[in-house]
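Hey, quick one: can you model this chain's 3D structure?
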Amino acid sequence: MKTRILVVDDELSMREFISILLEREGYEVLTAADATTALERLAASAIDLVISDVQMPGLNGLELLARIRESSPETAVLLITAYSTAEQAVEAMKLGAYDYLAKPFKVEEIKVLVHNALEKRDLKRENVMLREKAKVCAGFGNLIGTSPRMRELFALLSKVADSASTVLILGESGTGKELAARAVHDNSPRKTKPFVAVNCGAIPETLIESELFGHAKGAFTGAVGERAGLFEQAQGGTLFLDEIGELPLAMQTRLLRVLQEREVRRVGGSATKKVDVRVLAASNRDLAEQVKEGSFREDLYYRINVVQVTMPPLRERIEDIPLLIEHLATKHGLVAAGSGIITSEALKCLMNYLFPGNVRELGNIVERSLVLSRDKITLESLPAHVKGSAKRFDLHSPVAIPDEGIALEPALEQLEKQYLLKALEKSSGVKKKAAELLGMSFRSFRYKLAKYELANESDES
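Sure thing. Here's the predicted structure for all 461 residues.
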């Protein structure tokens, strides 16, 4: 459906001039010789933009603007006049006019103003739709999304939260594994008790046993007093073991015993203490592959993998990107809620980008862009690598669907395999370079190779 513009002017020549100009630009144009007729046109059909003269018999353009704001607040209004004054311009802007144009004006000038007024109207409309979606199904805890993948995830997390089962959360870096763990805790019967999170890969191997289980006074140099470990600190609540695949084998053995016996013994101590803790674990590694390699205990894997939750990467739920952008921007106080925060060109670019860093990367891009451009994300404010990568990956390229239909998930997996193999071929088998060609992190690239059993054991570069 064409964009519909209403031109209101008591001069026939001006109405005809603007009508011809805008019709050549592809717009549907209606006209009215006075404000009363204009209001009748507005009541009869949806109008996207009104271009009105200010000085007219009967109701003038400012009075018409006020009436439009009452009856049709989504309609953009552009005022034009041959008798421009600063006071009149200020009043027009206060009443909600998009802009105020003095006669005589240049053809290109009005074309640009019309385009910009309609774009701003569209951005406002998109944000209203986003807020309506948010009311229906915006997320679970601090996880945001309305895509089918996320709705399935929220349903699973809701069921998991009501149980006491150990949960293994898998997914690439930046997909929100800790947010999922917190959401499970906050919606569980343990929500009033502590939620304690630890990154197993960030603690030195010599300290991790003491960190998890605590230590007795004099257990080692520097142990000047007794200290409760994270299991004790999480008593009655939830302990989240992030990047559990980073734990050394010796520590895996001790952890398994604690999970089985539900009791801990501090380093250097002799007494054991019962603990009532629900354990949630997460990893961006393929733990099943680590079990095969011997770097992760099989019995511990089955102990923590009672219920498995997989966090979808952002590239597999691109329809959530507009909602995430608004959420991330307003969450950090970068813009007011509901304002038009991104241009259509910038949004299209982001939705064509692969996001190797997932939602965490999107958050960084949103913050960077709004800092540089002050109040709106534009194509120019996006990082160069995002614009370059998006140009190489066109989501709108034509695809064919056979008459008998197609199974989408297997087809996407096959396409992903082809890209992985083509990238390896193009990079002469150098995995780091292949990952860069696909806009992925090296870790994510290795994970995908292992997932599809494409790993080349002779090449670890």
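One thing worth noting: The chain has four domains: 4-129, 140-310, 314-392, 408-451.
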